[in-house]
Amino acid sequence: MLTLHDYLPSQNGYKVRLLLSHLERPYRTRLVSIFEGEGRSPAFQALNPVGAVPVLELEDGRTLAESNAILFYLAEGTPYLPLGPWQRAQVLRWMFFEEDHVQNGLASLRHWTMTGKLARRMPEVIAAKRAGSLKTLGILEQRLAEHPFLTDSGYTVADISMFAYISRAGEADVSLEPYPGVRAWIARVRAQPGFLDEVHPYSIDPHSSGELP
Amino acid sequence: MLTLHDYLPSQNGYKVRLLLSHLERPYRTRLVSIFEGEGRSPAFQALNPVGAVPVLELEDGRTLAESNAILFYLAEGTPYLPLGPWQRAQVLRWMFFEEDHVQNGLASLRHWTMTGKLARRMPEVIAAKRAGSLKTLGILEQRLAEHPFLTDSGYTVADISMFAYISRAGEADVSLEPYPGVRAWIARVRAQPGFLDEVHPYSIDPHSSGELP
Q1: What architecture is domain B2-79+197-204?
Q2: Which of A124, A194, B170, B213 sits in a 20 to 30 Å window from B102, CA-based?
Q3: Could you tell me the pTM of the whole model?
Q4: Do A72 and B86 touch (CB under 8 A)?
């Protein structure tokens, strides 16, 4: 059986849980106490030197880090990843966009907001992340105002990846009100068979000052 | 024939040029004057709303943005992308790592350093990007001290992607001296058949204050 090394408040972990829920694929969870510093333990660093969840572990012990790579792998041979190389490239295009712009924008802003780190961050840095988040939402709105999903291949792992943090924008104090296309897309994702409707609160983070921003 | 919308000082553009050089695949270049603001023109925004190069254009007019997605697409059916889903996932794992940690760390620091923006950035932000770059290099060193390439599938698009900015670390004032494994890997990449040995200086950027950091 698959093992998912996970931390429940992580939306990167949620990405994988959401796909596994769609696939009705059984798996075991191994909880990693990220906020108690377990991400920096030698045992976990051997799984992922970045120190982040999720990490997928196969039955034979092989492991794979990076939520978006895990999504791509698990979606192989399922309706959540198209077959054609061009179609796959378009899925990857949005997943790389997510990795670059959402992880370092909205996801980081949400983390700071929910854990109280925001008060210790410089206003200019917060403003830059907020501006970046609005630019990202504008780009998504442009696509989603006129198309049901991110690519022309229906609901794919590109949407699953993007949904994880974009749908929680409010928790970063970023309103989705000006983005009706994005809001309609969120409703479409939530209506997919096997949608996983869960979100876990952050603990207060005793290690936050030692973490990367 | 393929058209590559490109800007020569962009190392993200170089990633694609390097792969095309290995593949000896002919293509046409359409230069985009990023620093003169052309990335924000409606014509270019239709190709990539992020406003960044490279963008790949097929003969029939279809386009693909994001350098790492372009690499994955062009490497299909070549020795630069393994066939197995697990092996591909490991390639993607490093490409997503590059997108998240290198683009927002070393690549951004190099851009600031080479265009004179560094003087206008806050010391804390510079320090955070420098710390992030050292963490990234430490992770790469751990892998490359004991393995010839990033994955166990030989020289792949994961290495091509990572090489673009890591090999230019000195231009971000980050020394590779403490990372012998990374330096040996750089030499191995440079020794690959069809290696493209080019780098283009940045122009001074008249639009830099209007850009995202």
Answers
A1: 3-Layer(aba) Sandwich (3.40)
A2: A124
A3: 0.95
A4: no
